[in-house]
Amino acid sequence: MNARAAQPASPSSANVGIVIVSHSPLVAKGAADMVRQMVGDCVPLAWTGGNAEGGLGTHVAGIAAAIEAAWSEAGVAVFVDLGGAETNSEMAVERLDPARAARVAICNAPLVEGAVVAAAEASGGSSLAKVVATAEELAP
Amino acid sequence: MHLDATDLAALIGLCRAEIDRHGEHLSALDSAIGDGDHGANMRRGLEAVFAERDAIAALPLPAALERIGLVLVMNIGGAAGPLYGTLLMELGRGLGIADTPEAFAATLEHAIAAVARRGRSGPGDKTLLDVLYPVQAEVVRRSAPGRIAACARSAAHSTEAMQARRGRASFLGPRSIGHEDPGASSCALLTAAICGYFEEHRPS
Ligand SMILES: [Mg+2]
Q1: Is A23 among the catalytic positions?
Q2: Distance A22 CA to ligand 1 centre (A)
Q3: Where are its TM segments located (chain B) (predicted)?
Q4: In a designed cystine with B191, which of B48, B123, B124, B152 is the match (CB 3.0 to 4.6 A)?
């Protein structure tokens, strides 16, 4: 298992969802655990890590499934680690229908800190734009 | 370009065999300056295309190229998946519009520009673009396939002297100099394999 919804969000959640994409399933799951510790289950959250064969890497189908699992009508903020995680996430977003794709943002922020800060912001009901802006303040 | 289903299936087989043959070498190149998975990733991508070659070859060329691009994106993973996938998908989309040598050259240029945007890279960054740009220039000149293949090989070799500015190799700074870029290398192998087929069969 190298991808899953970290925990089902409460169905009534209108908060922005968070997706964590790492080359390593251990890193992705660990970051998701830290997010969960911070915000409980009031933010939709999913992680994916590793390639299709379970090795280190990223893959589009896994990322698409994570976005689906963390879907919120308020939008989804995606956090990525190295290069391929970002470009593969872009490909996953472009394959969504355009109305949904417009509500997914790939954040230019550190994976762990960005996801935790974004989730804290999202848990207060902030918009996707605000969640992304708060996380991107951490970018070097 | 007038490729029929037989040509397309043969080209897919050739590309898959070429990557399979050089998989270890591509991974060794990637180990020197990256994470060592380029051969395995490319093999996975080409195997997936090969597995559905009959269905792909039965499609009109533009749709076939788009499908190949999508299969590569979904299966290569790593940084190369989105780059090769974007190249093929954009080629397919562009070729649907017109079907002349000029249109092919223009479509190739457009598709390479899309790869550059996807990778946020340009010439001299030590990526597969350093093969694609010179290949495109030869296509514009309507060079013979053998000449295009030779150009691709020497372009890949020339990445050895470059310092990487994209991807993990860029973390090495000047230590990335002295190693051929694995993406450039796989791109040259595929270009040469395709050109070899055109030289032998001249489908157009
Ligand atoms: Mg690699």
Answers
A1: yes
A2: 14
A3: none
A4: B152
* Beta carbons of B196 and B143 less than 8 angstroms apart: no
Ligand 1: distance of its center to the CA of B163 in Å?
17
Q: Please indicate whether, in this complex, the C-beta atoms of B119 and A61 are within 8 angstroms of each other.
A: no
- With an 8 Å Cβ cutoff, are A83 and B35 in contact? no
Q: What is the domain-level CATH number for residue B101?
A: 1.25.40.340
Number of structural domains in chain B: 1
Taking alpha carbons only, the member of B194, B180, B160 closest to residue B11 is B194
Cβ distance of A59 and B74 shorter than 8 Å: yes
Tokens linked to B56 = 């792909």
**pLDDT band at residue B8 using 50, 70 and 90 as cut-offs:** very high
Of the residues A13, A15, A20, A23, only one is catalytic, namely A23
Please give the model's pTM, rounded to 2 decimal places: 0.92
pLDDT of residue B78: 86
Angle, helices B38-51/B182-201, rounded to nearest 10 degrees: 40
pLDDT tens-digit profile of B132-178? 999 999 999 999 999 999 999 999 999 999 999 998 899 999 999 99
Cα(B52) to ligand 1 centroid in Å equals: 25
pLDDT in tens, B37-77: 999 999 999 999 999 999 999 999 999 999 999 999 999 98
Interchain contact, A84 vs B75, CB within 8 Å = no
Interatomic CA distance for residues A99 and A14, integer angstroms: 17
Strand order in the sheet with A76-80: A3-7, A45-49, A17-22, A76-80, A104-106
Mutate: best of A87, A94, A95, A108, partner B, most B CBs <10 A: A87
pLDDT for the residue A11: 47
Which among B82, B119, B167 has the least Cβ separation from residue A88? B82
Other beta carbons within 10 angstroms of residue A9's beta carbon come to: 22
Tell me the pLDDT tens digit for each residue of A96-116.
999 999 999 999 999 999 999
